[in-house]
Amino acid sequence: MIGIFDSGVGGLCAYWQVRRMLPTEDIIYLADRKNAPYGTKTKDEILSFTRKNIKILKNMGARAVLIACCSASSIHHLLDADERRLSTPIIAPAAEAAARHGRSIAVIATRHTVRQSAFGNAIGAISDATVTELAEQELVSLVEEGNRDGRIDARCREYLSDMAERIALTGADTLILGCTHFSHLEGEIGRLLPRVRIISPARVGATKMVRGLTPCREAGRVTYM
Ligand code: DGL
Question: Do 69 and 153 fall into the same domain?
Fold first, then answer.
């Protein structure tokens, strides 16, 4: 059994990828709505939510936990050794994927992730690409309110078009959707920035975790909490 958590619906994009790769695995998806949004919280608060989520999923029998949230992944190094061993954060794999070809990388993320410069530091450790990090916290609420590829309301459309201008001004050739919620709008964002390569940490992180696991024959059940 695998555990996946996020503050809300963002991690579902990672869940779909895990499910595609491991069709028979039982999965528990935990949305910590009580404490959402994570992006406006302090590092200590996010650390404590993350610890609690890992503990719940471990106690339910998870053999691995995917931290399908970039804000929570940014504090992975602060977890204790057992928590780190059980859980996979999604920032480093996405930073690696972006740094492979990107020379100018834009990151859109929550306020917390940008404040920590989580992607900037991860990319800076492996590449000399230029990194511009933009806090787009409001987009988290727009996704929680139901905006998705193919069904976006006028407010979201306007937000995305302003955001695309901000991104274009950075001269980016690569864009990291540095908050898993934003993967729900990957198609719309890609349409607005057709020449920019888009990296989804939700998908890249999920792929990385699954590749490190031996498949397990279970009933392929999913439990949402
Ligand atoms: N989906 C999360 C992330 O990747 C959290 C968004 C939020 O709750 O602010 O950062």
Answer: no
Question: Is the CB of 17 within 6 Å of ligand 1?
Answer: no
Q: Give residues with Cβ within 8 angstroms of 104, minimum separation 6.
A: 129, 130, 132, 170, 171, 172, 173, 174
Question: How far apart are the C-alpha atoms of 190 and 36, rounded to whole Å?
Answer: 27
Our answer on whether the CB atom of 140 is closer than 6 Å to any ligand 1 atom is yes
pTM score, whole prediction: 0.97
Are residues 46 and 63 both part of a single domain? yes
Let me know: does 206 contact 17? Beta carbons within 8 Å: yes
Mean pLDDT of the chain: 98
What is the span of the domain harbouring residue 155? 92-200
**Active-site annotation, residues:** 69, 179
Q: Do 191 and 107 share a structural domain?
A: yes
Please check whether residues 148 and 136 belong to one and the same domain: yes
Q: What is the pLDDT of residues 24-42, one digit of tens each?
A: 999 999 999 999 999 999 9
Q: Where do we find the tokens 């690696």?
A: 96
Supply the CATH number for residue 188's domain.
Answer: 3.40.50.1860
